[in-house]
Amino acid sequence: MRIATLAHVVVTGMLLAACGGLAPQPPPPPNSPAVVTTVPVGSAPTLLAVAPNGQHVYAASNNTLTVIDTASNAVAATLPVNPNSTGIAVTPDGSKVYVTSLFSINMTVLDTATNTLAQPIQLFLQRLRGGFSWMALSPDGGTAYITNQANNALAVISLPSGQGTTLMPDVRPNDVAITPDGRTLYIAGCKPICTPGFVELYDIAGQRFGREIEVGSFPYRIALAPNGARAYTADLSGATVSVIDLAANAVTTKVSVHVQPTGLAVSPDSRTIFVSSQTGGTLTVIDATTNQVRSSVPIALARDVVVTPNGQRVYVSSERDVVVLDATKL
């Protein structure tokens, strides 16, 4: 087994074990004036996605998918899903939520109009069982690009059929992001040794891979700034956020964050980066203009983070809750 693959397995095991409720008592709620409330969800690790209209946040936990009404921060629905969720995304029109799972080729589908589960989508190619993870959806919602690090592949899935093809990038992909015009993929991942990590570009129309950008160690998540100026990677082993100038296709700086950054989000105005660090138990807030840490909030086992489209609320998944924060106080 190659070093980076082994590291991925070890880290995944750590995340599942650390979040599995081994402690006899849950950690205390975060103590910060920015905290609005906490919303109970299923057992961790919990992955988050937010509806394009901001009305709901979706929390994919181990065996459950929780729908949170952002107006009341109350649970609107709780539904069963496959264990060990590995990726979640909302379609651009907000009509569906897709959830991938570690050992399944069936992708869960939530109909958001009724908050009920639709027929799952069976992903193509039985040989790729296991490893389907984070995804990016095309602007029209008709294609999903799903990382499959275990098989060194990026699946290109036609929706809703589930049929598709496989791209074989030079990096083993952990996460993927797509530009708003749907023309370019940014694939974050590792080579045989994951120090450094890389972001590889893929021209969708031309169907060809392009430049590779060297980033921090083990880039676990990637996010694009809405203004199109920068991309960011959360570097799991390096405990850094790499700042990429997209015009130059180069890293301009790395910002130190707390240990094991597993969640990453950029505010709608592109001025703020939010980083959740699981082992570090912290939400780090970075000023995108200065690339300096502006504030931090202790949140035990902070796993994932999303920000609402109006930029007013930040949601962070912890051991058994989703913590809701007022972005104006961070």
Give a written overview of the molecule.
The chain is mainly beta. The protein has a single domain (3-21, 37-329), classed as Methylamine Dehydrogenase, Chain H (7 Propeller). The chain is 5% helix and 50% strand. It is built from one helix and 29 strands. Strands 6, 7, 8, 9 and 10 form a five-stranded antiparallel sheet that branches. It has a four-stranded antiparallel sheet with strand order 1-29-28-27, with no helix packed on it. A four-stranded antiparallel sheet has the order 2-3-4-5, with no helix packed on it. Mean pLDDT is 90; it is low at 1-24.
Amount of helix: under 10%
* Element pattern in H and E: HEEEEEEEEEEEEEEEEEEEEEEEEEEEEE
Number of separate helices: 1
Low-confidence stretches: 1-24
The computed structural class is mainly beta
Q: Looking at this structure, what is the CATH superfamily?
A: YVTN repeat-like/Quinoprotein amine dehydrogenase
Q: Shape from CA axes?
A: globular
Give the C-level CATH assignment.
Mainly Beta
Radius of gyration: 18 Å
The count of domains is 1
Mind describing the biggest β-sheet? Answer: 5 strands, antiparallel
CATH topology: Methylamine Dehydrogenase, Chain H
Number of strands: 29
Supply the CATH architecture.
Answer: 7 Propeller
Amino- and carboxy-terminal Cα gap: 42 Å
What is the residue-averaged pLDDT?
90
Estimate what percentage of residues fall within beta strands: over 45%
